[in-house]
Design goal:
Helix content: 55-70%
Number of domains: 2
Strand content: 5-15%
CATH superfamily of the largest domain: Cation efflux protein transmembrane domain
Low-confidence stretches: 155-177
Structural class: mainly alpha
């Protein structure tokens, strides 16, 4: 067999992961801003005696660390996208980074909660004016970061033109959200909410004498971090463990195939191989088997299926 006769079946598994995304540069800018503000807030919390301010600084530090992991994931995904050791490309690197970020966030939350509890039993004096000023500056910085990250998401184009022994996808384009950028946005949004809590606690303590609100808001901030980290652990583990795609995705694929002739899907596995992109293994039974490219042509275009294997079984009894 001549080499050129199989070229149309040959393809890589980069799926657009080798392209630098604007979210990478924007996240890097936010990391620098967040890290500087983190240092200021932690120092101010220690000097002025505010647990809420210290908790806000630690919270911001946890996000700076998580965002750093996110930037590294961008770089690693892009630089190793053509590495053939990755069966389905490097798209899962972002999920692995998210899992690591979640563990880090939970650790920070435990520290915040412990320090806040200690302040209930051993309160310290708070210099309210300075602490409130720093907390307000932190909130403004968070607002700036939200503007930087809040721009239009990258549109990832996946141009696939390949066919192998069981699958053919005509040239098509898929667009989806940059999940790393969205996660960074949520990080900073949570920071902004924590800053609001710190300001509220300090104002109430200064004017109403409710000093207990300061360590209490530290505990509330820790709770928010734990809640976020648990959600991230669940979502990233879902991808890392190759769990099934959402039910609506499975239903859409099944309907698209069974809507034609007497096709019946007997086995269906769809899993995430990168942000917003899926691989699938589809086994179907029909009385009139067609070539694999016929069935791949039936798949819904709104779903980013970048790697599909179709297995067809003949069953004459289905006819009629």
């Amino acid at each position: 067999m001549h080499t050129e006769s199989i070229e149309r079946w040959l393809h890589d598994h980069t799926f657009g992961q080798d392209r630098k995304k604007s979210g990478e540069s924007r996240t890097l800018i936010v990391i620098i801003i967040t890290a500087l503000m983190m240092i200021v807030e932690i120092a101010a919390g220690l000097v002025f005696g505010s647990m809420a301010l210290l908790a806000d600084g630690l919270h911001m530090g946890s996000h700076a660390s998580a965002l750093t992991i996110s930037v590294f994931a961008y770089y690693y995904t892009r630089s190793r996208a053509k590495d053939t050791r990755f069966n389905f490309g490097t798209g899962k690197v972002s999920s692995l980074a998210g899992f690591a970020s979640a563990v880090m966030l939970a650790s920070f939350a435990l520290i915040m909660a412990w320090e806040s509890i200690k302040r209930f039993f051993s309160p310290v004096g708070i210099e309210f004016n300075q602490a409130i000023f720093v907390a307000v500056v932190g909130l403004v910085v968070n607002g700036v970061c939200l503007v930087i990250l809040g721009g239009r998401d990258d549109a990832h184009r996946h141009d696939d033109d390949h066919e192998h022994e069981t699958h053919y996808h005509e040239h098509h384009v898929h667009e989806h959200r940059d999940h790393n950028l969205w996660a960074a946005y949520i990080h900073v949004l949570a920071d902004a909410l924590t800053s609001v809590l710190a300001i509220f606690a300090l104002v109430c303590a200064k004017f109403l004498g409710l000093v207990w609100l300061d360590p209490f808001m530290g505990i509330v901030g820790a709770f928010l971090v734990v809640r976020w980290s648990l959600g991230l652990l669940r979502s990233s583990a879902h991808v890392l463990l190759d769990m099934q795609a959402p039910q609506n995705v499975l239903d859409s694929i099944r309907r698209s195939i069974e809507a034609h002739g007497d096709n019946r899907v007997s086995d269906l596995h769809v899993w995430t191989v990168g942000p917003g992109i899926y691989a699938a293994e589809i086994a179907l039974v029909t009385s009139s088997p067609q070539p694999a490219d016929y069935y791949s042509g039936l798949l819904p275009r709104e779903i980013s299926l970048v790697h599909v294997t179709v297995e067809v079984h003949s069953c004459p009894s289905l006819k009629g």
